Queue: 3 jobs
Job 1
Amino acid sequence: MSFVRFDIIAKVVELGSFTAAAEALNMTQSAVSHAVANLESEWGVSLFIRDRKKGIMLTEIGQTLLPHIREVLNRVEKIQQEIALTKNIETGLIRIGTFASASACLLPKLLVSYQKKHPKIEFKFYEGTYEEILEWLDSGIIDVGFVVKGHADEAFDLLPLMKDEMVVAYHPNHRYEQQPIVDITDLAGEPFIMPTGMYQSHVEDIFSEAQMKPAVLFEVHDCTTIARMVGEGLGVTIGPELFLKTQQLVHIRQLNVSHHREVALACPSLSQASPAVKEFFHVAEAVFAKEKDLGKGV
């Protein structure tokens, strides 16, 4: 059985069309359609529903088989990497799931260190929410994911990277600019922009522990939109320092109450991961150990 047909099926599901899959795989559309049809005929089942309005969808049996197909492809990739390793030839692909602030602040420094040692390893990136990253890990779409401890399933192997403190963000002309630390009670009555996305629970916990209710003026899902609204002076917000320190329109201050999210790398099983993924974890451990030492002034 040709593994190329498995790759075609996974790519059609990922991209949502035979045409896009053909382009990504440098094949003709007819070749992709022919490969799928042959596999369906060989197995005696239909894998896809072709709907003019909804496009390409997996059948029920297709949904059942997809995780197994991805697992086979992952195993083939690991075999190829192990063979290449014995020949001192590096090859492989690492698929990484990440959320916005991790993409901007954590991923680049890891890639720089990794590619200095292993320039021939390729990467593919998927950006999403905490929940989407966990789903991608569980279904085999990605090999490695940036996650937040507390959200990550216990079934995954985790490598803690850093603690990301929750801070208050405000317009540069706000009175908080004169305060080295902002007391949480000083937010009482302050027009507040409440995040409804990934870190909402962290913000709610802070106010709950302080036995306060913020004066919510807006509820906004997108992190960048929140930062822009704060930068226009529409209100203040609380969010992760990792993200907010990159936003030029706002200033940030520490709160007098400490609350953080712990960012980690996750993979389904490090012991069964490919050589490239194992090395990615080793590099991440070294990079962030160095970051911690620098933070302590070592």
Note: Confidence is low (pLDDT under 50) at residues 294-298.
Job 2
Amino acid sequence: MNTDSFSLSPLGRLATPFPDKFGIPRQPSLAPHATGTLRLLPPYDRPEAVRGLDAFSHVWLTFVFHQTGGQWQPTVRPPRLGGNARVGVFASRSPFRPNSLGLSLVELAGVDTTDGVVLHFRGVDLVDGTPIVDIKPYIPYVESLPDAVGGFASSAPPRLTVNFSTAARQAIERQARHHPELAALITEVLAQDPRPAYAGDPARVYGVRLYRFDVKFRVADGCAFVDSLDPA
């Protein structure tokens, strides 16, 4: 085995509500209604491979930033710093990393072994189709560190209030059978303010795709206003 290079085999690809990078929560668990489903591929789809996993409430997902693979930068501009100040890539969670690997802590919502292995998660922050290369249980007594220092991300960013137009509410109600969580998911996503850091025009209309819907919204005075919800 050549210890100077390594290869990774995806366990499967995560299905999520986010077909595009724009609008994805910038950290896991910020949108609890963002669900993910992972069907393990052969030869990893054996029930014994996940035996005991359902005893844990959360898991770490190691994944590949497949849309930015092969690109990296020594310094990046984190959104939390306004998109202007630069820090080293290793002082950030930027996808533009030398080995394109990411780590996400998600809630384990279910383990289904009736037909292969299917894992269900809540609070995902990954684009639809992300390759998952490892799964590890979260161990609270060693991995929850209340005295840890968070650098430039030491506290949660301010949240927007989210309001819906009558037309948007009606469109959401029509999807209640297939997506009962849709209103909550839109609220959680837009409350994080997915716009670029330099955005400031209250008249500008933005669009974020969730599942197969194009959600149009504007932001002014600390409020995100959802104008419409249309099939993408």
Note: The helical segments are 140-143, 166-174, 182-191.
Job 3
Amino acid sequence: MPFNTEFKPVSLKHTTLFKPMKVGKTMVLHRAIIPPLNKMRADPETHILNEELSIEYHGQRSQSPGTMIITEPGNISPEAGGYAGSPVIYSKVQMEVWQKFFSKIHENKSFAWVQLYALGSQASPKFLKANGYKYVSASAGAYIDEIFEKKLRKQIIPKLV
């Protein structure tokens, strides 16, 4: 892919990007926020995050004091998942691993919020069937597309909610 010679960089010096901002009771020192990025590196069986990689990853991204990090999503229950490798945050053992990388973030004088989630209509039919979970969605009949609905009905129709 050729380099775009028509692109003209614009300085962000006079924008609010580098100005502090209050988020709830927390004062972040700039507005460059690390968004939630699910890396799908949790143990496929226990859904516990890879401790070493999580501490390193979040430690690197929190090196600039005052950084706001919204962590990768954490499923709120086993049934709320939907993919192998997706992290969870509902048991004491799992929360102990999360706490270790929160400690690293706080050591770097930065801040973290967990994105809590339930996959609902985005859950993998194969994952749901393999784990004996029901398909639960916020809206009845909500499917990604017709192919997804056919797979879902074929694989877990007796458990369809």
Note: DSSP finds four helices and six strands in the chain.
